[in-house]
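User: Run a structure prediction on this.
Assistant: Running it now.
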Amino acid sequence: MIVPNRGLISKLGDLLGLQLRSNSTQTPAPTVHEPMTGERLDEATHSVYRSVVGVLQYIMGDRPDIQWAVKTAARSLATPCQSDMQLVKHTARYVLGTSGLGLLFERQEADVKHYRDVRQAYHSSSWNRTDGKYPHPTSTGSSRPDKRGFRPITGFGLDLRVFVDSDWAGDRQGARSTSGGCAEVSGCPLGAWSRTQSVVAQSSGEAELMSLNTGLSEGLGLLGLPASLTILTDSNAGRQTCHRTGVGRVKHLDIRYLTVQLLLRQKQFELQRVPGVDNPSDLLTKNVSRQVLERLRSGLHLVPVDREVGMLTSRASKRQVGKEAMVLAATLAWARAREGTPRVPA
């Protein structure tokens, strides 16, 4: 389990004059937030605002549930107003009140066994060839390259899952949408993001397609891991656009967002539907109610530290987990070195 730096949380309270769990809030942002409204902050308060946002940006790496709020506050760094200061105070109180949350990395026994089998296969005679034509173990058992001469890269039976979502025209000033997503592999979180889209989407389907494109880019960037890629979305319009060819009636759609169609036809990834009530990336696109936050927060692998206190306090367990993690990382690095760069001609 990874918990945020206690020193940063204490510094957050010192900057705003808050104490741990004092006047804590239930959500990362207020129910209604109007950015850049009210009086402009004076120079001294502006300096405090920048420092608080900087500390929150460090913390949000271990607390993905505050990424939307921090992203919104960071957009007003140049000319913050009273409403922006209220937002960061609200977020700070939420972080102080929920300092007992941490990112949980679950150990999957089936995956550990599979890695051991793969490591044994690498040491076998069939992998010690010098002509470079050694087999590549895949989830389907096939070692043949495809018609373009590329080896499959889904070799270790792991499933890299990327959840994506968007909030259409959530920006009240520029009418721009927000793309949110999170990636995980074998029950372990790999990353999360909350980003304002660069162009104005003219429909919710377009906003979802842009979010799908961002999630695909992040997933392909993580495919240095030996895993298959699955994109999960709750948008029917986004999935339908990905499954067809061309822009159809949406002729103004940027060509770069149609890359998902090409890669989907080439079976570089799978596209699946996830119910909206079970999509954890919804937390990364907008402010949600307390009920929704508590329901989806576990989807981001955020759990109370008290639940895993045995793992955190036992030195033997920590040494064992650290040793296994080092062995697993070394096996991955060695396997990737033997394979070379993914998708190279056989």
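DSSP finds eleven helices and seven strands in the chain.
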